[in-house]
## 1
Amino acid sequence: MPEARGHTARREHTRALFLALFVTMLWASSWVLIRWGLDDEGLRPVTFAGIRYLLAAILLAGITAATPGARFAIARMSNRSWVTLSVLGLVFVTLAQGAQFVAIDSQPAATTSLILSLTPLLVAGVSNLTLGERPGARQVVGAACIVLGATTYFLGDLGFTPVGMLAAGVGLLANASGALIGRAANRDRTLPPLVVTVVSMGIGALALVVGGVAVEGWPGMSGRAWLIVLWLAGVNTALAFTLWNRSLQHLSATESAAINNTMLIQIGLLAWAFLDEVPGLLDVIGMLAVSAGVYLASRPRAEIEVPA
C-alpha cells in the first residue's frame, strides 16, 4: 500500500508540473492576444484591461455564488477586510494591469515582459528588508545576473520607448506592492483564496473600466475583438487561475517559481513568432541571464520539499 500511495503521489506531482507549465503558456499567450487587440482591433489599453478583468471577475463570481463556503465568507467579511481587498484590487488590478496594457501598447512585448519579470526579486528584496535579513550569496549572484542581463538586452535590437518604460516601471512597483498586500490579506487564512481574488479583482476591474471609459471612451468592438476579450477573461484569467491554484496543491514554492519564471522566455518566443519582434543575439542572452537571475535571487533560503 505505501508503494501504491507513493506511485500515486508521484503521478499527481508530474501532472501538476505539466498543469502549471500549461497555465504559464496561457498567460504568455495573453501578450500576443493583447497586442492583437490593441494593434489590429484598435482597442484602447486601459478600457481593454478593465473589460477583460471585469468579465473574469463576473465569471469567478458565478463560481463563488455556487460555493456555499465562499458565499458565507463574503457575507461575514469585516469592514477591515473590505478595505484591504479594495486596496489590493486598486493596486494589483487597476494600477498594475492598466500600466501593463499601456506598456504593451507602447513598446515591444519582450521589453515589457523583461521589466515585469523583476517582480519576484523586488518582493523578495522588500521581504528581506522587513525581516532584517541580509542577502545570501545566491541572491547576490542572482542580482548580478539580472544587472548584466538587462544591460545586455538593452544593447540589443528590440529597444524600448520612454512611455513604455515608465508604464512598465509603474506596473512593476504595483505588482510588487500588490503581492505584498495579497500576502497580508491571505496570511491569517480567514478568507478563502477564491473570495480574496473575486472581490479584489471585481473592485479593481470596475475602477479600471470607469477610468478607461472616462479617458478613452467606450470602444467600438468587432466580433473578433469580443472573442479576444472573452478568451482572455474566461480562459487566460478565470480558468488559468483555477488550474494554477490546483497545481500549487502538489508543487513546492521553488518549483512553482521556476515554472512561472519560464514566461519571460515564452513571451519572447511568442512575440518573435506572432508579433514580428525578432530578437538579436544580445536580446536572447539578456533574457536568459535575467530569467536565471530572477530565479536565483527570489528563491527562498530554505528549500520546501515536494509533498509526498
## 2
Amino acid sequence: MKRTLCAIGASLTLTAAMAWPDKTVTLVVPFPPGGSTDLIARTLQPKLQEKLGGTFVVDNKPGATGTIGATQVVRAAPDGHTLFVSSLGPFVIAPHLIKVTYDAPKDFDYISVAVQAPNVLVVPVASPHKSMADVQTFLKANPGKMTFASSGNGSSDHLTAELFWQQTGTTGVHVPYKGGGPVMTDLLGNQVDSSFMNINTAMPQIKAGKLRALSITSAQRSPLLPDVPTLQELGIKDANVYSWQAMAAPKGTPADIKAKLHAAVKDALNDPAIKPKLLDLGFEIVASTPEQFTAFQAAEFARWQKLIQSRNIKVE
C-alpha cells in the first residue's frame, strides 16, 4: 500500500510538472518598480512567456529590505506558479541584519543567478581625489574624515565600503540614505565625498563628466570603464563585489520545472535583442545553473555573515 501511494504521489507530481504552466505565473519582485531588479524581471517576463507558454506577470512587493516579498514566495505552493526575482539582499544579507521568517539557505530552490554588476567607487568631479592612491593616503592620514554614502545600512554599497576599510586598514564615515536617488543628489552637490555605487546607477553621471570613477569591484576591468582599475589590481584582496539579480522558487518545486526555467532564463538573457542592452547597462550575463546558484548562495551567505559580524554592522 505504501509503495502504491508513493507511486501515485510521484505520478501526480510528474503530471503537474508536465502540465506547467497551467495558470498565471507570478514573478514576485521585492522592491518598487524602476530599480535594477524590477528591470531584470520585466526583461525576462515576456521571454519566459514566449518560451514556456502561459501567462507571466511581475508583482512588486516592496518592504523590509526585500524580505516581505521573500516571505510571500517561501509560503507559496512549490508548483512553479510563484517565483522570486530578487537582488542579493533577501538571499544573503538581510537574514544577518534583521529578523526574518524564512531560512534563506533552506527555504528556496535556487534557479539561476541571471546577471551581476560590480560597484564602482565614485567621487564628484570637483573632488581632490584623482586615484585610489589619493583616497588611501587621505584615509590613513585622516581616519574617520572621508564620507562614503550608501543607499542604506546593510546595502551592497555599504558593505563594499566596510570591506574596503577592513582590507586596507582604513576608516571612513558611512552616511546611509534611504535609496540611491538621494545619494546621487548629494554626491553631485558635493555634500558627501564618495560612494561605492552600482555601475548601472553611476554610468550616466560618469559619462556626463559629473562623477569620477576611481576603482571597480569586478574581477576584471569593465568594458564600460576600461581605464578604471579593479581593487584587486591595486593590491586590495578579496574585495570583488557584485550586486546580482536572480530567480528562485519555493522549496520543493519539481526538478522538471526548475530545468525548464533555467533553460528559458539562459535563452532570454542571451537573446540578441536583449543581451547587448544589458551589457550596455553594465550587467554581466551569468545564467548559472541551479547547482551553481545553490553553491554560490551558500558562499555569499557565509561571506556577508562573516563581514557583518566582524564589523558589528547593525540596522537601525
